[in-house]
């Protein structure tokens, strides 16, 4: 029996406290091989996302993994970005102001890196997209065959059948670049999107934080340091004693798709107006008389339910090592 081939993963990320958690879980997941991190704005600006990605790899002692810096602007070249420093701290990592990393990003842009790796390992790469989808859309612009060459794109994005978290219409990652999101959702790639309707069911509680605090492991201790701001935000915004594990849940869906159930249909994204960033899902149950913006577009998988206790068990097992 040969060794089971590990899934090759690129994490597109805007670290971010829960991004940090997802990255550490990924590095401790024997099922996958993280072949690169690409960075994007969202929780912080892109420059800081790159710095944080390099820093997290240093903490995890995995500086062998390349970091490719992503776009500083949206697909339509907008520079006015929505940055969520009030959720993750101004440094993106719980206001700990760690010393700068010694490592540097590679010379290649995130989009070029994504295209390059999809050519090198056609059909074998899973992109786990934890921020706005600009880099992925730019990879598609750079190489129109990218959707066929990439194995799967697992997206943290959208709010299906529930309110958004930026406003009632929109979830933060999609709102960050609605044009890019619409390009990606209609690209024909094998896509699974995990919305906040699902990630809001996975709660990392005060009790879980205590367990982490009791663990002597370097990663566990590091996470305890950075989680404070994230806990306070959730307490104020949602009146809950815990934090939602958006990014770790999405990563684990890429590792083990059976943790979630899915429905399939066409997703379009509203690009302007009061509902900018809205993900509108056509469940394909009706044949409409009119040709619409959903007609004949490729279907994507949208997560509907999650086995939250199992996700939490995997999270804790991997972080408490």
Automatic annotation (TrEMBL):
Cellular compartments annotated: Cytoplasm
Annotated EC: 3.2.2.3
Keywords: Cytoplasm, Glycosidase, Hydrolase
Record keyword DNA damage present: no
Keyword field contains Cytoplasm: yes
Catalysed transformations (reactions): uridine + H2O = D-ribose + uracil
Gene Ontology, cellular component aspect: cytosol
UniProt-listed InterPro entries: Inosine/uridine_hydrolase_dom (IPR001910), IUNH (IPR023186), Ribo_hydro-like (IPR036452)
One Gene Ontology MF term: protein heterodimerization activity
Domain Inosine/uridine-preferring nucleoside hydrolase: start-end pairs: 9-312
GO biological process, one term: purine nucleoside catabolic process
A Pfam family hit: IU_nuc_hydro
Role: Involved in pyrimidine breakdown.
PANTHER family recorded: INOSINE-URIDINE PREFERRING NUCLEOSIDE HYDROLASE, URIDINE NUCLEOSIDASE
Family per similarity comment: Belongs to the IUNH family.
Annotated protein name in UniProt: uridine nucleosidase
Gene: URH2
């Amino acid at each position: 029996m040969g060794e089971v081939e590990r899934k090759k993963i690129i994490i597109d990320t805007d670290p971010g406290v829960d991004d940090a958690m997802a990255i550490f879980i990924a590095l401790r997941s024997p099922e996958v091989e993280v072949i690169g991190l690409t960075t994007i704005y969202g929780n912080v600006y892109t420059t800081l996302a790159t710095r944080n990605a390099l820093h997290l790899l240093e903490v995890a002692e995995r500086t062998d993994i390349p970091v490719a810096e992503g776009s500083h602007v949206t697909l339509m070249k907008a520079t006015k970005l929505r940055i969520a420093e009030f959720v993750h701290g101004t440094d993106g990592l719980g206001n700990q102001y760690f010393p700068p990393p010694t490592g540097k990003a590679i010379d290649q842009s995130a989009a070029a890196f994504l295209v390059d790796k999809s050519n090198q390992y056609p059909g074998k790469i899973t992109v786990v997209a934890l921020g706005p989808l600009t880099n992925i859309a730019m990879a598609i612009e750079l190489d129109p065959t990218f959707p066929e060459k990439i194995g799967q794109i697992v997206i943290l994005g959208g709010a299906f059948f529930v309110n958004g978290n930026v406003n009632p219409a929109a979830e933060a990652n999609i709102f960050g670049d609605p044009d890019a999101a619409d390009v990606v959702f209609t690209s024909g790639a094998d896509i699974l999107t995990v919305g906040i309707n699902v990630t809001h069911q996975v709660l990392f509680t005060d009790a879980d934080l205590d367990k982490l605090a009791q663990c002597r492991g370097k990663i566990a201790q590091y996470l305890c340091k950075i989680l404070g701001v994230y806990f306070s935000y959730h307490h104020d915004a949602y009146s809950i004693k815990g934090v939602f594990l958006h990014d770790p849940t999405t990563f684990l869906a890429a590792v083990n798709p059976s943790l979630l159930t899915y429905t399939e249909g066409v997703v379009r994204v509203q690009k302007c107006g009061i509902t900018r960033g809205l993900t509108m899902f056509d469940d394909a149950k009706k044949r409409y008389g009119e040709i619409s913006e959903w007609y004949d577009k490729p279907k994507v998988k949208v997560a509907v339910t999650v086995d939250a206790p199992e996700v939490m068990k995997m999270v804790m097992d991997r972080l408490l090592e």
